[in-house]
Amino acid sequence: MTMQEAMMNEHPPVRTDADELVQGIEKGDVRALARSISLLENESPRALAILSALYRYVGRAYRIGITGPPGAGKSTLLNKLVMEIRKEHHAVGILAVDPSSPFTGGALLGDRIRMNDSVQDGHVYMRSMATRGSLGGLARTTAQAADLLDAFGKDYVVVETVGVGQIELDVASAVDTTIVVLVPESGGSIQAMKAGIMEIADILVINKADRPGAGELEDEILQILEMKPRDERPTPVLLVSAREGKGIEALWAAIKHHREMLAAEGIRELRRKSQIRSAITNHVLERTRSFIERNEEMGRMVESLSLEVLENRCDPFRAASLILKKLGIS
Amino acid sequence: MTMQEAMMNEHPPVRTDADELVQGIEKGDVRALARSISLLENESPRALAILSALYRYVGRAYRIGITGPPGAGKSTLLNKLVMEIRKEHHAVGILAVDPSSPFTGGALLGDRIRMNDSVQDGHVYMRSMATRGSLGGLARTTAQAADLLDAFGKDYVVVETVGVGQIELDVASAVDTTIVVLVPESGGSIQAMKAGIMEIADILVINKADRPGAGELEDEILQILEMKPRDERPTPVLLVSAREGKGIEALWAAIKHHREMLAAEGIRELRRKSQIRSAITNHVLERTRSFIERNEEMGRMVESLSLEVLENRCDPFRAASLILKKLGIS
Which of B277, B284, B328, B282 is nearest to A299 (CA)? Predict the structure, then answer.
């Protein structure tokens, strides 16, 4: 994304029609893609219209997640991995998810820090994702942005998340292969378990593997992984030095191997179906929420019930039952 | 919580009736409280019945959140703060939120690490919280557990969260005073902004303030805080050495001062009303979700629509519209 594009994302100069953006994306116009993702971030209803129109192209791109604690060298690893993918001439979309402040626009900061020339060519699109609208929508928006990149024609979509929170778990459930990156400094097994990301790893990378402690970390990880049930497939643990480019080919090979396994066992289709089921249900709930918030009669009802709860004349559960009854759901 | 209690939480020896637990909590029985929170964690319908019956006692306890990056000394600070609160003979409930693995039971690990004898007396109840059921429910379960502690008669409920994720933002919106703890080692301003927690801080604590770099961190924080709009109240920044007990009295004074301001400006009641509104809406959506998932006819509809989407004959948004139409919501 150029600076100019970034500014246009922030302040769209014209109110572009959803149909125009759909046609733009169909023609491969990167600016239409960028604006559509901005609309998603802003939770604009137009974004869903665009996604709906393009959904028939969704399902082809292979999705890779990269997560791990801050300082694990994820961005460097991402750059090198994308260069490796580019050797095979695949088109790549990158989403760098920034779960930081919804108030100060963490994504712009993220853009500045994470942008790296090495991955910027005509076939690579990189974008930082942050919450601008409601809290809690980031994982959903990211999954939808991945759908857009998929529809745009990217062969691979790589989603990078920072941190150890809920968002990583949610993103992991929306990608095909999840790579967890740890470094010798990220400490012992307790740290890794607390990160809560050992179980979501399809591939474990020990980055900065030339540093002291890499062997010990590997031993600890292997010990933890032994606790996995026997019938589950073993998680590969790879020693990588992303900065020196060591181990990147092996990582790419491991991703492709994982992809083949998922395909052979029919798991990818099962996962995709369950992702679609979640997407449908979540969308139903989202629209139910906005119905409750925007419908005048419902608004009055919620308001008066809230007051009753505040005055201890009702409780939220009874209030919810009354609303569900009104909605006709029981 | 004793080891015995912990075991009973894990494997309740008898299937206690919700009414019995309600009566137990009304009588001040800590075991009834512990079991009810376990039911909440397990997302048992009985837990909501208990909370519903006790809701008329909710709204009295003052809620304090403590958050910050791992290694910031939050547990030590929490212990010292609770000792300070105990000097005034208030009853305290503590919830240590562990957003780690929903698979390996991070809470038990958390218990072992965080438990500290100094805060264990008859008037202090401490409990670790982790997700056992669905992902994403941790913030809601924590808010409900705080309600239970409130109904139980605790004067203060302190919620400790680890990390820099969404959960901190969600928890912050459910407490009255949010304390963000940073340490000189947590690095410069970018790190702090990325943590995304500067904006949610009602009080900022620089812990381990005897270490080198504390002054620089204070300067950076004050610079960032200057970007706050002028009409917002200034965020106090306190230098603390929790281990040595330095600055704890000032922190307690700052909390009480913040509480007085919230009361004087009527903000606490406004916040509480908005929390109640969210609780009602979320409960409506949760029950709508379970209706969609459990109702046979709805289940068949979602299943067949998912298949249509998978085969690119429909998209999730159109599918959602059809379901909303069936539900009678539009």
Answer: B277
Q: Do A327 and B324 touch (CB under 8 A)?
A: no
Contacts for B41 with CB less than 8 Å, ≥ 6 apart:
B107, B129, B130, B131, B132, B133, B141, B145
Name the nearest CA neighbour of B137 among B43, B64, B45, B46. Answer: B43
| Non-local CB neighbours of B183 within 8 Å, separated by 6+ positions | B68, B69, B71, B72, B73, B206, B207, B208, B211, B217
Low-confidence winner among A10-19, A112-121, B298-307 (lowest mean pLDDT): A112-121
| A38-74 pLDDT tens trace | 999 888 889 989 999 999 999 999 999 998 877 788 8
Residue B318 phi, psi dihedral angles, 5° rounding:
-65, -40
Supply the ipTM of this predicted assembly.
Answer: 0.75
B237 contacts B206 by C-beta, under 8 angstroms: yes
User: Which of residues 288 through 307 in chain A touch B, CB cutoff 8 A?
Assistant: 288-289, 291-293, 302-303, 305-307
User: For residues A196 and A202, what is the distance between their CA atoms, to the nearest angstrom?
Assistant: 14
CB-closest option in A55, A281, A324 to B292: A281
Instruction: Give the residue among A236, A1, A22 at the shortest CA–CA distance from A96.
Output: A1
Instruction: Give the count of beta carbons closer than 10 Å to the beta carbon of residue B290.
Output: 12
Question: What's the DSSP call for residue B245?
Answer: T
Cα-based angle A200, A206, A208 (whole degrees, multiple of 5): 145
Using left for φ > 0, alpha for ψ between -120 and 50, and beta otherwise, residue B163 falls in: left
Taking alpha carbons only, the member of B321, B98, A32 closest to residue B330 is B321
**B280 and A CB contact within 8 Å:** yes
The predicted structure's pLDDT at residue A195? 47
> Residue A43: what residue type?
E
